[in-house]
Amino acid sequence: MCGEHLEIKCNTMKQTLTFTRPIIASTESKFNGEAFDASVEAFENHEYLKAFYALLDSINGDFRKKYGNVQGNEFKIPHGSIVVTIRLDDEKLMITAPFVGLSEKGRIPLLRQVAGLNFNAMDLAMIYLRGDELFFEYSCPIQLIQPYKIYYVLEEICRTGDKYDDEFETKFGAKRIYEPKVMPYSAKDVDNIYEALQLSCKECMEAVKYFEPARKYGFIWNIIGTTLMKFMYFAHPQGQLLNDMQKAIRELDRDDIPLPDITAQGKAVVEKLQKMTKEELAEDLYYVETLIPSKRRSNLQNIQDNFEDSYKRISAYMEEEDYMTACVMMLYKFYEMYYYNNLQEDVNRVVVKVLEKTSAQAWEEAAPVLYEAMEAIMEDELDEWDDDEEEDYDDEEEEEGDGFDMNSYMKNVQAVQQQMMQNMQQMMQGDGMQEYLQQVQVLQQKMLSGKMSVEEYTAKVQELAAKNFGN
Fold first, then answer.
1. Cα–Cα distance, 244 to 319 (Å, whole number)
2. Is 81 left (phi over 0), alpha (psi -120 to 50) or beta?
C-alpha cells in the first residue's frame, strides 16, 4: 500500500525501525519431502500402514518413537492445548482431539459458534459434542488415507484448535480438557521482549504522529503493519495474544472500509500493546510443542513471486533516491515474509544480517543495504551475498547467544527424562527420594527464571542423580 511520496521534508522520521533478535533463532521447517514422497508411493502401492508411517515421519521424524505405542497403531501427539490421538489398523483410521468443555453460562452461544465452524471452517474433520465436551473427529477406511488428505485433516484440526480454544475460553468461559505442557520464557527473556515491545510501539506512534497531519495513510499503514509483524517475529506470542495479533494483522488488509479507518484501528492495537504490563505480556510468552506448524514452509520461488511487484516499485524509488519510501516498503516485505513462513535458513541468515546492519540507521544509509539483500533474494545470489561477511556473522552469534534453540531444548529434556527413568527403581528404594526431588525443583525454578541455562540444568540434574543413586 505504501506507494506515496512524502512531499514535505522529514524531521522526526529520519531512520529505520530498531531491530530485535527473535526469541527463537530459526523457524526453518522440519518437513521431510523425501519421506512424504515415500508416503505417496506407498499409498499408490496399497501399502497403507507404511504410507501413514512415512507421512508421520515427513512431519517430524521423532513422533513415531516419542508418541506412539509399542504396537505402532496408536499415537497421542500434543499440539498446543490439544492432544491429537491417531488410531489405525488394517481396516480404519480414526483421528480424535479434545477441544473444550462447556460451561453453563456460555453454553448456548458457544454451541452456535461451533455449529458455524462445522459448516464454514471445517472441510473434512468435524466437531462433536460428547456429554459436556467438544471433540474433533475424523475417520475413514484405511484404503482412503491419501497422504495429502490426511495431512490436511491434521492441519485443519490443529489450525482450528489453535485459533479458537483460547478465544472460547475468554469469551464463553469454555474449559480446557487438556492442559498444555508449556515452558514459560525466562524472566530475562520477558524483560527483553517487554523493553523491545515498548521501543517498537514508541517508534510506531512517533511515525504515525508525524504522517497523520499530511494524511499519508499509506505510510501509516505500512509502519503499523510492520510493527505488529515485527512483534510477532521477535516475541513469538501464544494464547489469546497470538489470536489478537493475527486478527489485527488480518484487519489491516480489509478493503471494505476506508484506509483512514483501517489505520485508526491498527493504531488502537499498537496503543493497547503499549499499555500492557509486563505480567500481562508474560502470560502468553511460552514454548509449546506442535504437531502441524502454523506457518507454511518457505520456498525461494514463492518468496520471489511475492516480492516481485514491490521489488519493481522499490527499484524505482531507489533510482529516484526516495530512500525513506524504499526502506519502509522493504522492512514491511521482510517482516511479512517471516509472518507467513517458516523461513529457510539461507534466506534467514541474509535477512537477519541486513536487519541488524540497518537497525535505527538513517534512510540513505539503510536503503542500499536493504536493497542489496532483496536483490540477492530476487536474483538467487544468497550464497554470494552471504559469503562476504560469514565470519563476522558467526562471531556475532557466538557473542550474543540470543535465540532459543527448541531442538536443543527438547533433546536436553529427553536426556533428563531418560536419566530419571534409569534411576527410578533405585530412587523408589532409597531414602533420598524427597530430598532429590526438592533439589531438582530448585534447579528447575532457576532455569525457568533465567538464572540457569537449559544445558546447566541438565548437567546439574544428572550430577544429582549420580550423587544420590550411584549412577
1. 39
2. alpha
Helix 323-340 to helix 345-357 angle (10° resolution) is 140
Which secondary-structure segment (H or E) carries 206?
A: helix 187-211
3-class secondary structure for 199-261? HHHHHHHHHHHHHHHHCCHHHHHHHHHHHHHHHHHHHCCCHHHHHHHHHHHHHCCCCCCCHHH
| Cα(370)–Cα(350) distance, integer angstroms | 10
Count Cα atoms within 13 angstroms, Cβ side, for 333: 28
Measured from the Cβ of residue 214, the count of other Cβ atoms closer than 10 Å reads: 13
- In our burial notation (b when 16+ CB lie closer than 10 A, e otherwise), range 257-268 reads eebeebbbebbe
Residue by residue, pLDDT tens for the chain (471 residues) are 444 333 333 334 679 999 999 999 999 998 999 999 999 999 999 999 999 999 999 999 999 999 999 999 999 999 988 999 999 999 999 999 999 999 988 899 999 999 999 999 899 999 999 999 999 999 999 999 999 999 999 999 999 998 899 889 989 999 989 888 889 999 999 999 999 999 999 999 999 999 999 999 999 999 999 999 999 999 999 999 999 999 999 999 999 999 999 999 999 999 999 999 999 999 999 999 899 999 999 999 999 999 999 999 999 999 999 999 999 999 999 999 999 999 999 999 999 999 999 999 999 999 999 999 999 999 999 987 765 555 444 444 444 444 555 555 444 544 444 444 444 444 444 445 556 555 655 565 555 445 555 556 566 766 665 565 444
User: How far apart are the C-alpha atoms of 261 and 33, rounded to whole Å?
Assistant: 44
Cβ burial, residue 270 (10 Å; 0-12/13-18/19+) = buried
Q: From CA 19, how far away is CA 354, in angstroms rounded?
A: 10
In 24-132, the DSSP E strands lie at 74-79, 82-88, 92-101, 126-130
Provide the residue count of the chain: 471
Q: What is the DSSP letter of 24?
A: B
Question: Could you tell me the three cell numbers for 470?
Answer: 550411584
Separation of alpha carbons 465 and 426, rounded Å? 10
